[in-house]
Structure formats: C-alpha cells, structure tokens
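I hope you will forgive my troubling you with a question about protein structure. You will find the record immediately after this paragraph.
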Amino acid sequence: MNQSSRSSLLYRRLNQQILILDGAMGTMIQARKLKTVDYHGQRFADHPTDLTGNNDLLCLTQPDIIRDIHRANLAAGADIIETNTFNSTSVSQADYQLEEIVHELNYAAARLARDIADEFSTQTPDK
C-alpha cells in the first residue's frame, strides 16, 4: 500500500472510530533494564560520552528491542505506532555528542516503525 492509500485509510478510520495510539516507548525500554553496553553497542563502543538513557540510539544499536516494542503495542491493540524519536534532535543529541547522527536516528526509527506496521498490516486475522 502506498503512502497516499495509507493516509486515505487513516482518515476514513478516524471518521468512523477512535484509534488507539501506542504505549509509552520510554517506559517499555526502561523495563528492559538495559546496561551501558546495550546503549553503546558495537558501533559506539569507544564513544567518549556515556550513552545510557539515549533511548533513541537504540534504533541503531538495539533495533530488535525497538521492533519488539512496536510489535507488542500492535499486538495489544494499538492502531497507530509512533517512531522512537523523542530526543532525535541536534539539541538533545548534543548531550551525548551525537548531533551528527540525528538524521540517521530519525530515518532508522521511521524505518523500524514502518517495517513493523507493514508486517502487521499484511497479517490475516485469526478465524
């Protein structure tokens, strides 16, 4: 389904019913009890700044965790999922000395959400 078709479907559904937005991404990430090494991953293993708490970075270093959270939200009944980009701005990422990857963070987060949304939209309901 192309973007125009998805947008039309969204507007039709919004006119027909209340749609449920996904749950709290940050809370679900915190429940994972991640360690510093989880945030840094291999790519940022030698990064000079502590990256703990940079949840948006997990789109690059732990994409499976973000995918799992999106899946859990959709499986729980969410109609719409957001991207994991609460702090994907140059101002926020400056705290971690990662301003230069803001575009990459936003793109990766959007790609993850889109892939999981597509995965769920192509599933047939159980009978």
